[in-house]
Structure formats: structure tokens, C-alpha cells
């Protein structure tokens, strides 16, 4: 199964509470923090909601 490397590139300050919760649930805390997430439908749906705040790369 492929995995996704997710990096927070914009601050969550002044964002909607739902977007803040998604970022926190992903394990991202500060700008430039990075986490590895599984590539599945649930993760993709959450990433779609915060696409303007993150950078996503595929890890093999």
C-alpha cells in the first residue's frame, strides 16, 4: 500500500475550526511539520478539505 508524505506549508491561524481539527488529527502541529499517512479514501477526503494548507508527496 502506498503512503503519503504530508507537509503543512501554511499556518492554521484564522482558519475554520473544522480545518484546524483536521490538521491536528493528522498530527501536524507547526508549519513545515511532516507526517506519513496511509493512502486511503478517508485520508484523501481529509486532505482534500485542507489542500490549500498542505503539500502532499507519494512515498514508495
TrEMBL record:
The protein, known as: Large ribosomal subunit protein uL30
Origin species: Levilactobacillus tongjiangensis
SUPFAM superfamilies attached to this UniProt entry: Ribosomal protein L30p/L7e
Residue ranges of every copy of the Large ribosomal subunit protein uL30-like ferredoxin-like fold domain listed in the record: 4-54
Presence of keyword Ribonucleoprotein: yes
Entry-linked Pfam families: Ribosomal_L30
Family indicated by similarity: Belongs to the universal ribosomal protein uL30 family.
Designated gene of the protein: rpmD
GO annotation, cellular component aspect: ribosome
Alphabetized NCBIfam families for the sequence: rpmD_bact
Record text on subunit structure and interactions: Part of the 50S ribosomal subunit.
HAMAP family for the chain: Ribosomal_uL30_B
Keywords: Ribonucleoprotein, Ribosomal protein
Amino acid at each position: 500500500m502506498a503512503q503519503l508524505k504530508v507537509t503543512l506549508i501554511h499556518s492554521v491561524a484564522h482558519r475554520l475550526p473544522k480545518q484546524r481539527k483536521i490538521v491536528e488529527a493528522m498530527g501536524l502541529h507547526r508549519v513545515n511539520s511532516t507526517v506519513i499517512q496511509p493512502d486511503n479514501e478517508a485520508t484523501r477526503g481529509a486532505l482534500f478539505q485542507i489542500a490549500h494548507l498542505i503539500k502532499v508527496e507519494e512515498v514508495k
